[in-house]
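Request: Mind sharing a record?
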Amino acid sequence: MKDIQSDYKSYEQATEPKRPLVKNCIRAFLVGGLICVIGQLISFFYMYFFHFTEQTVGNPTVATLIFITMLLTGFGVYDRIAQFAGAGTAVPVTGFGNAVISAAIEHRTEGFVQGVGGNMFKLAGSVILFGVFSAFLIALIKTIFSYWSGI
């Protein structure tokens, strides 16, 4: 059985197309950076026109980025951007918005409750779970350290 596995592995390596790793990394970096620049411009917009502070501008900026991503995903534009940029679109918060709305669009034929509502957070559920758990751990560590420094 081992000969078959090694033969298949060598066949697989010979027929697998070579991926342009450096080119893909540059695309991901540039598109991810562009998304971050757009996020910064949205932050400046909120600070200038709505008088948010640097401490309070984060939440509306993130909500706006997720909303824009959901619109672009609904119109099929974000998927084309993601094919071009790869991980550059998945790493920022826009990847979360894309994951949520893609699952909702995919299951819309099953109805709003069982289809959209039941499947919307399947892909993003682990992000939410581990994000909340990580935030809890960080808050716990910060509380312990602040308690010890106060003693």
Remarks:
- DSSP finds eight helices and no strands in the chain.
- The helical segments are 2-15, 21-49, 58-74, 77-85, 87-90, 93-106, 112-119, 125-150.
- The chain has a mean pLDDT of 87.
